[in-house]
Amino acid sequence: MGLVRGITVTAFFGIVLFVLIPVYVPRPNFIPGFAPPPDMWPRTISILGMGLGLLLAALSLSRKPQADADPEDAGAIRDGTPLGTLVLRFVYAVLAFAGFIVTVHFAGFIVASMALLFVMLLLTGQWQRKGTVVLVALFLPLVLYLFFSSALNTRFPAGSLVTILGL
Amino acid sequence: MLNDLLTAFQAVATVENFLIMAAGIWGGVIIGAIPGMTGTMAVTLALPFTFYMEPIPSILLLVALYKGSTYGGSVSAILIKTPGTASAACTTLDGYPLARQGKAGKALNMALYSSCTGDFISNISLIFIAAPLAMLALRIGPPEYFMLMVFALTTVAGVSGRSLLLGLISACLGLLLATVGEDMYGSFRFDMTVEMRDGLSVAPVLIGLFAIPELLKLVVFRHAGAKTALELGDNRVTRAELRRSLRSLFKGSLIGVVMGAIPGIGPSAAAFSSYGEAQRTSKNHANFGKGEIEGIAASESANNGCCGSTMIPLLALGIPGDVITGVMLGAFMIHGLTPGPMLFEENLNEVYMLFIGMLFSSILLFGAGKATMRFFTHISRIPPGLMAPIVLILCLFGIFAIANSMYDVIVLLAMGVFGFLMFLFAIPAAPFLIAFILGPMLEENLRRALAISRGDPSILVSSPITWLFAALAVFVVAVTIRRQLKKASA
């Protein structure tokens, strides 16, 4: 695990240093006075990060891999569940988040929130409480919507579909 | 001065003023406890309502909201591992583990005692040392600020768990993410979309990093998540626990006072510095991060310790130390009071009334905290599988409402996924957050100092104050490394 972590961290900072900074942190033609350029700080951090990643990988090969010594290890709470199931659950959750963002554009914030809450309640294993799940998923976003829009005058996105239908 | 204070006491001690302050404190606690609702939002929302009020009651209302929301942030930090405000993020480190041990009530009580003590000490310091401390803060320039930030960053060592290396990697990630957006000279960095030009706000990053991974843990490791149900159980803070925490509590209050008095530092940095200091000096340092009550005392006394002292530069010099005092500056002006040295010349009576009102509000904070605690403890009875998605929806609405921005909502969700991946890689989240908050100040002051010195880095160690902070930082890092080596050899 330590080796994979070290390589991943090194690769991440390496991509930032060699790919992202040259493209997304351009040096301006004119820099006032002796001010350091805008890429100085991100470059410094990336180099430091790469160094730490390499150190992490190297330490994981030593006899006492300190890099692994973290108390809150995901492996400890895995509880024998097959890896495929865990990955699938994670993918479902990420898809639900992505679905929420897409749904907001079509159906509006409130409907998307209801759908996301319903899906997340099912994903956390609350399907036995069907009545509670439906009630919470319908009414909580509605209550929050009324509170924020009336008390704070927040204008939540209505959604293109809702606008077209004139609801 | 004493006569003036007594006159001000008589003027402030009215039923109307008490009701206004109580409403402010109560409202602040509730708003602060809702993830995504910040103290700034509470103060900003209340501002229009103060237009029709007298100057002092209106300022007292805003100050009460500020104090209440600072404490309120700890309630959700302890009960649902979701700090209501950025300054309560540090409280999560020990508050939530205590709640998981069935001692949520104990954690909430310690947070309340510490907040009230820190707040009271802060108010006293505001009254007696406003002018001298403000003069010292004025002498701090970019090199000193940079070194102060470096010293504050050494807190990372204290919150890195067992692996300092993973903590440092986490801090690098936080520093890197803080560079997204426009820099101090107007250059854009990592602006992959138009929205990214504004950078990443603290609220979605903070809440995404702390709240969403808890939901994802429940979704992915379903069975294990079910075991984390919160129990209030043990409510009392014993005398022994209080005695044990007194040192950190008073030290935290003083750290809060000093850091709050320096413009731009704020309660988050104070809380983390105090926490790091408590961890370094405590006999129970090994228990920090696992549910150490002293950790709560340190962080909560420091963040509320800032509440009074942030008013020092505002009142004495007219400099708002943070966003909230910036809003308050506007409130002063609306009511015809101009903060600065002239305020003490022309409106001395109003200044003393404000001082006295702030002292009263510390006592009211205790009452409101006790009452609200009972109300919020019902949260613990909700199953985590039901609670976590509810928290997600609260976060979505709260984050959207801050700036009416879907971009912030996307950042919130993305940071949640990122936080979960960090958990899978056993990379601690707290150093990331500290670095993300302190990063912009660190970079800005480094670049400003280098620009002043025409690129000569020796400016960073050019004054006694920079030497002091540099020595403190080196000392802290050396102590941490020594401790880790000792542990490794044991």
UniProtKB/TrEMBL annotation, chain A:
Annotated TM spans: 7-25, 45-62, 83-101, 107-125, 132-152
Signal peptide range: none
Keywords: Membrane, Transmembrane, Transmembrane helix
Residues in DUF1468 domain copies: 13-157
Superkingdom in the source lineage: Bacteria
Pfam family, one: TctB
Name under which the protein is recorded: Tripartite tricarboxylate transporter TctB family protein
Originating organism: Aidingimonas halophila
UniProtKB/TrEMBL annotation, chain B:
Signal peptide boundaries: none
Pfam families linked to this entry: TctA
PANTHER family on file: TRICARBOXYLIC TRANSPORT PROTEIN (PTHR35342)
Keywords: Membrane, Transmembrane, Transmembrane helix
InterPro entries, alphabetized: DUF112_TM
Entry protein name: Putative tricarboxylic transport membrane protein
Keyword Ribonucleoprotein: no
DUF112 domain mapped to chain residues: 19-433
Record field: transmembrane: 20-47, 120-138, 150-180, 200-220, 249-272, 351-373, 385-403, 409-438, 459-481
